[in-house]
Specification:
Elements lengths: L1 H8 L1 H5 L9 H4 L53 E3 L13 H10 L6 E3 L10 H13 L1 E3 L4 E3 L13 H9 L6 E10 L5 E12 L14 E11 L7 E7 L10 E6 L4 E4 L31 E14 L3 H6 L2 H4 L12 E13 L9 E7 L5 E7 L5 E7 L2 E3 L4 E3 L3 E5 L4 E5 L2 E8 L11 H7 L3
Antiparallel strand pairs: 1-2, 3-4, 5-6, 5-19, 5-20, 6-7, 7-8, 8-9, 9-10, 11-12, 12-13, 13-14, 14-15, 15-18, 16-17, 18-19
Helix pairs in contact: 1-5
Length: 453
């Protein structure tokens, strides 16, 4: 722990040498001083409702087995300090996302509410990640119309962002550790009926972080493989995605392949991107809605609106790791009693569709937590400018791993009165590490070998 704190306080020595790009050395020297090593404000807010950052990290529950992958709630005895519901939400409107306000307008009378708990700022990263983030502050820059990062090391590329594109890149290549899990994805239709969209086993690895002393260059940020086993029409299908760590220029972006049982062969899948309806959620969201936002930023103009104090989901270990998803599915929205909200500072990033580009959404607004740089919420607007869908990530703490779990997320469709939840592990079916020993597992050839014949 002392090494982590020391790394945070000495980041100025990493950023002071040779400012070739990014912010100035004087600005970057605030990392580890007034700013955390990740660029968040070190101090709490004026009224104390948001505390100062705690470099010690989250508490680890007694008896925790790091091999179990069962990250139970580290704050089991806490109670809500505030409930925002249909009777009082307008008092807090300035601290709610547009999507959250839309939920209150539509479902406030039906019991939609936010149970707000004490805020815990315990996000940490490895020492090498802090050091590389310090280098990136002055050394990394966007080129090729924002489609490529140059000069970055495995870390946060833009801890002091100067544009919306820089901020969204922080989310796109966020720090994660290898994992595998079984999960069920449901959507709830307009009649309130929950429908199983998919059951699957997914494995994710993050090659970009394997050699932290090397520049990112053309390294892959993540390789994700999903093997589907339900419903019957999808059983045996496989999806493989390689996501780049720094380059979405022509021919360098996402690579995706699908194994379809009816064809019994592996095919390139360029349509696994942008606004193609995602069959993993029965088409109720798009591929680039996954994890609130993912993929190339090329179709939108990006604007860094600024930072705000807002209520967002946070530290949701009880829901993510301990709750059976079916128990939390209400007829119109996820049951509020299973969720934890906190007041946090977020960066607001707005995006509008570029002239001449095509997408289902004309505008998207994202809310990035200042400590993790993850888009915890998003608002999506249709072609007429109406709020259409909203999304939340339900983050959980992977204490002892210097990271959070950001793969449980869902969307509400305000126009069609449906919602979905994706990526939440089945209790007891989450494991640290990929569990993969075959180096061909994440290749098209490996898909073909394990495909159902």
């Amino acid at each position: 722990m002392q090494n982590r704190i020391k790394a945070a306080l000495l980041l100025g020595s990493f950023v002071a040498s040779g400012a070739l790009a990014g912010v100035s050395a004087d600005q970057a020297a605030q990392l580890g001083k007034t700013l955390t090593p990740m660029g968040a404000e070190m101090a709490g807010n004026a009224d104390g409702s948001i505390p100062a950052w705690d470099p010690a990290g989250p508490p680890i529950p007694a008896g925790f087995d790091p091999d179990s992958g069962n990250y139970t709630d580290p704050y089991p005895d806490e109670q809500p300090i505030l409930t925002i519901d249909g009777s009082n939400w307008q008092q807090y409107a300035d601290q709610l996302t547009e999507g959250t306000k839309g939920m209150f307008e539509k479902y406030g009378k039906d019991g939609w509410k936010l149970n707000v708990y004490p805020t815990h700022r315990v996000s940490t990263r490895p020492d090498w990640y802090y050091a590389n983030t310090g280098k990136n502050a002055t050394g990394a820059s966007l080129i090729a119309d924002g489609q490529k990062i140059e000069g970055n090391y495995p870390g946060l590329p833009f801890p002091i962002p100067q544009s919306g594109l820089e901020a969204i890149w922080n989310h796109m290549i966020r720090y994660s550790v290898d994992l595998n899990q079984d999960y069920d994805t449901y959507y709830v239709d307009s009649s309130g009926k929950p429908i199983l969209a998919t059951s699957a086993h997914s494995v994710s690895v993050y090659p970009m972080f394997a050699n932290p002393d090397e520049p990112v260059g053309d390294k892959i940020w993540t390789m994700l493989r999903i093997d589907y086993n339900a419903p019957a029409r999808r059983a045996g299908e496989i999806l493989l995605v390689h996501e780049p760590g720094a380059d979405y220029t022509a021919g360098k972006g996402r690579q995706a392949w699908q194994y379809l049982t009816g064809q019994r062969r592996v095919r390139l899948a360029p349509a696994v991107s942008f606004d193609t309806p995602n069959p993993g959620v029965a088409g109720t969201s798009t591929y680039d809605d996954s994890f609130v936002y993912n993929g190339s930023p090329e179709r939108f103009n990006w604007k860094l609106v600024g930072k705000k104090e807002m209520y967002i989901p946070a530290n949701s270990n009880k829901f993510v790791f301990d709750t059976k998803l079916e128990d939390a599915l209400g007829p119109k929205f996820l049951k509020p009693e299973y969720f934890r909200w906190e007041k946090r500072r977020v960066w607001v990033v707005d995006s509008t569709l570029k002239e001449g580009q095509r997408h289902l959404y004309s505008r998207r607004t994202f809310y990035l937590d200042e400590d993790d740089w993850v888009a915890m919420a998003g608002d999506m607007y249709d072609g007429r400018g109406n709020l259409w869908r909203l999304q939340y990530i339900y983050p959980a703490l992977q204490y002892g791993k210097n990271t959070g779990f950001f793969s449980s997320y869902g969307a509400y469709d305000l126009l069609q009165n449906i919602y979905n939840l994706n990526g939440k592990p089945i209790p007891g079916k989450f494991k640290n590490g990929s569990g993969v020993s075959n180096d061909k597992f994440f290749t098209p050839k490996g898909m073909a070998r394990s495909g159902v014949r």
